[in-house]
């Protein structure tokens, strides 16, 4: 502990004053007492230098420098220090020395301190500047090294990439390319770089390819992606998936274009091959059905003024060739036909395709197909004229062609093809070896026919059929003998359709069997109803029902049993039923076919020979048929509508009636429309008649009324 | 073209750096004219800025001594800048010889300078990494060499978090560091705030704008927002306070009024 107000105490007080003055302007993180602790030795040195015999400038300089070491780098720290020394050093540390001398020494000490401070600060500043500059340089070195490494890696990526990479400036000058790119093009690095990107045109370039390029180099587009072809120096084509990106500098200004290319040549060839295989017929090499549909679709969706013409060819009798000579021969025939057809359609816009089997199509497109398609069909017919030699045989090939021609944009491919198909069948049913032009009405008929055929089964289920009855009148006394059941179809769209519209269709599809059974059931039930109303006591006998039997039903094994069942279920005697069979159905009929009819006849069912006189009537045959009634075709009675009737017709009818009666057959006439006719036929000896003169076909109640009138009359 | 992650950003000493500006405020000459120009601009608005920096350094010094007194011998100083004097290793190693210190900064110049300063110090090193990528810091060879994360660590985040915008999730980074450190670890944190500045906020805002201009925006946070950084820590007495009031060694009343700008605190994990 220092002696109060002794020299040590006074020195400490000086250090306290000094630290208080300077501390606020230092940057030290020490506390003020700590700072004072740092200043105390400096104060001691100053104190001793003040009183030393000789003035030592270095000691004062060292104190000034030490201030900088204590982080008093602010010039204000020096200023305050000097103020403090000037005011208090002599006072606190002068002891008993000569004040004049001490003052002078203090002034010199201050000068030296200032110099020492300045020198130290200068050195420290320079050292720190040097240190930070070195640090910056070193940091930059690290960065440069990293950049170098980064660039080396990029270069490795660039060079080693399997994808072709090229960099060009915005004028198209190629600046850099990688190995993959040179290999793709088959050009050296130097040759590639001497080219301009704008020279790399190819006829297969998509229309937008160069527009996209221009947008990119103008900086309006960041990148684009196209499929692009290039010529290689050997003339082969390089196909690529090309992606071009715009490279901008740090300020965002466009600088370079970067192209990435993937060689797709092989893949493309494979695709083309697969596409070819998918679109061509393996046997003939012709375009196949799907390819043809594609082209047809294109032709049909062409713009205004564009037309199309289509020839649909089916070989006549090809099945016979296949069946007799074998499929291999058939195939060779098809190949030869395909070759000939191909030679017929070589103009642009024309094509030939094989749809399958022996069906081929030829298509022509353009504004003038109305004329061209006829010529095309003519060429095809001509091409088939020369016989085809297969296995040493000369085969004559003929074909039927359906032609459809019209403007684009109206019909679908399926509609066009259907029309062509229908027309081809028309040509075929007209005898073949010809071409026919599509006719919308004929198409419509076929289409309706087709529609009706497919609607038939559902129609039967839905109860769309109904029966009308046309009375059969006894010519002798004008009484109603019965009625012929005539089936009708109340079609939801087409209205009431007569049997001529759908019975052939039902025959064709076999639906005639259930339909016929239904008609028989209904009619028999009706017959019973009539009987119940009139009883059997009528002098004219019970009302009978005539039901038509189609050839198909005739062949159906269930005919007899069905008929028996229906009669039994209804409780109707067989003799109330008359089945009408057309003459043509029985032409050439053998015993097997006649057996069921004979069975029915034996049971008491009448069999009528319908439309007698229209077929090839083998009169001798009549004897062995189990027939009890002849229905004379209306053609015989037509001439009797005039008066006087044609005498020849009269003679014929008279002869037939005479013949029939001699064979014990009754004669019914159809188509009686006038009273004179009826009278004439009565005189000729006909037994019964039906026709508009008596009544048109109508609902069952009408017949009931007629019968009542008849009975009461 | 995008710069790949492994290529460092370039060094541009024509752009002011917050580390070198900090050094200038502390009377150092580890700075260039661009740094001093920015610093002088900020000083026009807040002449007392250097006192805030000084208070930061003084707080850090007290906190490091406190940590060393608590037995902690490992220090991780993130955002260390350019150590002019009174750095963590100087303070810590004076109290506890052999104490280990790892400095972290993302300014390559500051890192290069620290490397030069620490060249002969086997127990201290520096990592060039970003506070926002704690994983990179913790898995660096320097940290792995010097710091045992299974023993308590003093994590120093002095005057750094106010340079991280909320969008970059500073809270997440701090939490990740906290979770990586052993129980008993300390967080030593200071943060700028308008609270406590002896100036109207508009004037202080002028200085804040300078940092915005040099692309190093200064995010002034409220005391509550700053307190959230201590989530998961128990506050060491006297809690989150103005710097001169944290365990003062001399009378806080003697401090410059600027020293009371912002907040300081130390937390300890359970």
Automatic annotation (TrEMBL), chain B:
- GO BP terms, alphabetized: methylation
Key words, A-Z: Methyltransferase, Transferase
Q: Give the GO molecular function terms.
A: methyltransferase activity
What CDD domains does the entry give? AdoMet_MTases
SUPFAM superfamilies reported for this sequence: S-adenosyl-L-methionine-dependent methyltransferases
- Could you tell me which Pfam families the record lists for this protein? Methyltransf_19
Superkingdom classification of source:
Bacteria
Gene3D superfamilies hit by this protein: Vaccinia Virus protein VP39 (3.40.50.150)
Protein name listed in UniProt: SAM-dependent methyltransferase
